[in-house]
Amino acid sequence: MCIRIYYGVHYCINAVTETQGVESTVLLRSAEPITDIEVVSARRGINCKETESCRGPGKLARAFGITDKSDGISLCMSKLFIAKLPADTPQIGVPPRIGISRYSELPLRFFDESSAYVSGECSANKNMMRVK
């Protein structure tokens, strides 16, 4: 993974998607924690609903204890990993991108429509495309 600091404040997790030497990453915006739920909530330092503990890139990094020292850790062979999709693949939504002013119309934001852990206003968005 590649860790970046946004706005000089928030660590954010980027999944590296190419081989070494080729720059290509995907910003992870949210996650569904499957273990250590109490630890995740405690790192956030607030009493929030489980579904909100990892919503948003900065909150996600904080919840998982990610700092600049996490840069370079593999998302294939560590405690934090990206799981393979289940056989019953979810419906993937493609909402407009948020937090940017240029190229916001490009379909580059994806999420599981059935997940309660999604960041932003995805499920309520009327301008959303769908991936089949």
List descriptors.
132 residues, alpha+beta, three-stranded antiparallel β-sheet, 2 helices, 6 strands
What's the gist of this structure?
With 132 residues, this protein is an alpha+beta fold. Helices cover 11% and strands 17% of the residues.
Describe the structure.
With 132 residues, this protein is an alpha+beta fold. Helix content is 11%, strand content 17%. It has 2 helices and 6 strands, in the order βββααβββ. The strands form 2 sheets. Strands 1-2-3 form a 3-stranded antiparallel beta sheet. A hairpin with a 3-residue loop joins strand 1 and strand 2. The two termini are 28 Å apart.
The total count of helices amounts to: 2
Tell me the helix content.
Answer: 10-25%
Given as residue ranges, the uncertain stretches (5+ residues, pLDDT < 50) are: 123-127
Number of strands: 6
Terminal Cα span? 28 Å
> What form results from the Cα inertia axes?
globular
SSE order, one letter for each helix or strand: EEEHHEEE
The Cα radius of gyration reads 15 Å
Largest sheet: 3 strands, antiparallel
Give the mean pLDDT: 81
SSE map:
Blueprint: E1 2-6, E2 10-16, E3 25-27, H1 37-44, H2 57-63, E4 92-94, E5 111-112, E6 129-131
Antiparallel strand pairs: 1-2, 2-3, 4-5, 4-6
